[in-house]
Amino acid sequence: MKENQRQKQKRETRGKILAAAMIMFAERGFSVTTTEIAQSAGISHGSIFVHFTTREELIDCAINVFFDHLNQEINIAAKGNADMEDLLEVYLSILHSSEDFYRNLITQISLLPDVTQEKLFAYQTTLSFHFDDALRREKEQGKIVALPHHMLFNMWLSLVHYYLQNRAMFAPEDSVIDRYRDELISSYLMMIRKS
Amino acid sequence: MRTCIACGMPMEKAEDFAMDDPGKDYCCHCAREDGTMQSYEEKKQNLIRFVTRTQGLDEKAAEKVVVTMMKSLPAWR
Known about the structure:
A: mainly alpha, Tetracycline Repressor, domain 2, 2 domains, about 75% helix, elongated, B: about 80 residues, two-stranded antiparallel ribbon, 2 helices
């Protein structure tokens, strides 16, 4: 069915709010107010609540947009039975495009509602699924150390998260991923692969 | 790309679909041996095992994650 003018305008305003929110969450974190988001989007404060019932719903939608993109790219990369190195490279490339947003998310996740925290782990199942698959294939070839898959998965996330969360110490004026991408991937692979 | 209505997994190749049948809207992991789709409870328990095995979550926390995840999937809305 063809979209009428009113529906088009509604969709565009919703997109504008979401885009402004994502920029502000990346720049200033998840404590920004809906008043500030409305100002940045160039709309009235009340308009936000026509499109998002609560501030939490807006935050959830922004996180959903981020993970939809990340997970789609991971799914595409994993299509041809990507090996672990390919998977890690794609993962960091996508994070790089939204590095500030992701850093604020993992740093502030414990301040967000329980259901948002649960969603974060639900979104991560796409990565954990392909990670598990790549580990299984490399284990069959005798390449991977004998550690449980969840431990190997969490070791990777811990490493990436530690660098991102401490950007001020690791890359105060740069992108952490730009600076450490190769070292993170090669070091992790050396840790999990048998020598 | 089509995705499984019961777990969200992308389905591309015939073997990704239940019974290798691209006419199905659920994947090989969500089908029972006879090809029918698993019930809500069966899928929930399978996903809890999957999340626990691949992310190492506490079982009760894994259940909350899975219930939240399933709410967003077309088969369980």
